């Protein structure tokens, strides 16, 4: 086995260990449980779907006071929905953990490890 193959195998093993550690973490477990609860909550899912549809209508040029009013009402309902708030809080905590991880890796290798391209998650 060449030195490059050996190094690749070591990196892959370390990556598997990192992934297992991440998925076993309390932060990830809370995110996973909160996401599953959201998926299984039809009221919360409907609220988010309605909100996304209203936002899309606004982006498509249907900007009028009734759509704005409906969006504000939905925002209030979303803010009051425990399932949604739990999932959003868990997602924020996981994002913070991943950012800290990125910062540590970046420091170790002397360059930015993962750069945001403006995309989002969930």
Automatic annotation (TrEMBL):
InterPro entries: Com_YlbF (IPR010368), YheA/YmcA-like_dom_sf (IPR023378). This is YlbF family regulator. It comes from Halococcus thailandensis JCM 13552.
């Amino acid at each position: 086995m060449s030195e490059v193959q050996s190094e690749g195998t070591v990196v892959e093993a370390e990556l598997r260990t990192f992934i297992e550690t991440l998925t076993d973490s309390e932060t990830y477990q809370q995110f996973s449980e909160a996401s599953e609860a959201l998926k299984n909550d039809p009221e919360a899912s409907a609220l988010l779907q309605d909100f996304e549809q209203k936002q899309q209508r606004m982006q498509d040029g249907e900007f009028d006071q009734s759509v704005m009013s409906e969006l504000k009402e939905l925002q209030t309902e979303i803010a009051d929905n425990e399932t949604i708030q739990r999932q959003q809080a868990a997602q924020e905590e996981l994002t913070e953990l991943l950012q800290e991880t990125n910062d540590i890796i970046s420091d170790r290798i002397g360059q930015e490890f993962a750069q945001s391209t403006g995309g989002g998650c969930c």
